[in-house]
Amino acid sequence: AAMEGFEVTNMEEAVKEGNIFVTTTGCRDIIRGEHFAVMKDDSIVCNIGHFDIELDVAWLKKNAVSHVNIKPQVDRFKLASGHHIILLAEGRLVNLGCATGHPSFVMSNSFSNQVLAQIALWTDIKSYPLGVHMLPKKLDEEVAASHLAKIGVKLTKLTTVQAEYLGLNAEGPFKPEHYRY
């Protein structure tokens, strides 16, 4: 981000300047009580990263002198300083809590992946005994490949020489096992 010219700083500095805060880390304790306490009046705070522990919602609820539910998924908390914090989706995943639905194309990708996973689990019991499993990347890539043409994407197939150079099968999967989509 810094190399692209964006300002990169820590929360202690960002909280003095920002009006809208969106956490995306997948970690916990990103925006804490000490951050809420010094935010600008009517700062908007939401999370798209990990449950409701990226934001210390418990602190906000405990330390607010008043709380008004503006509408579903939008709450305004008044702090002792007189400043307000607007919290979206109760600190949970805002893309789920405040969304009115996903485009059908997104849902098609998701449901196709689920169907292929169910078929794999049902037809290959030896590879998937009862338990929790990480499904192969090949399934994700199959879903992506089947949908790309619908949005005008044309991909060049790897040649045998290219695939060997990259250490991949020309048919995929195209990412190593440690890579997470």
How would you portray this structure in words?
This protein has helices at residues 11-17, 33-36, 57-63, 94-97, 104-123, 137-148, 160-166, and strands spanning 20-23, 43-47, 66-71, 74-78, 84-88. The protein has 181 residues and is an alpha/beta fold. A 5-stranded mixed sheet has the order 1-2-5-4-3. Helix 2 links the parallel strand 1 (20-23) and strand 2. The longest helix has 20 residues, at 104-123. The radius of gyration is 22 Å and the shape is elongated. One of its GO terms (biological process) is S-adenosylmethionine cycle.
- Give me the Rg, rounded: 22 Å
Indicate the mean pLDDT: 90
Percentage beta strand = 5-15%
Q: What characteristic shape results from the CA principal axes?
A: elongated
- Could you state the order of secondary-structure elements as H and E? HEHEHEEEHHHH
What is the helix tally? 7
Largest sheet: 5 strands, mixed
Number of beta strands: 5
The largest sheet has its strands arranged as: 1-2-5-4-3
Structural class: alpha/beta
Helix content: 25-40%
Domain S-adenosyl-L-homocysteine hydrolase NAD binding: 1-101
Cofactor: NAD(+)
GO molecular function: adenosylhomocysteinase activity
Organism: Modicella reniformis
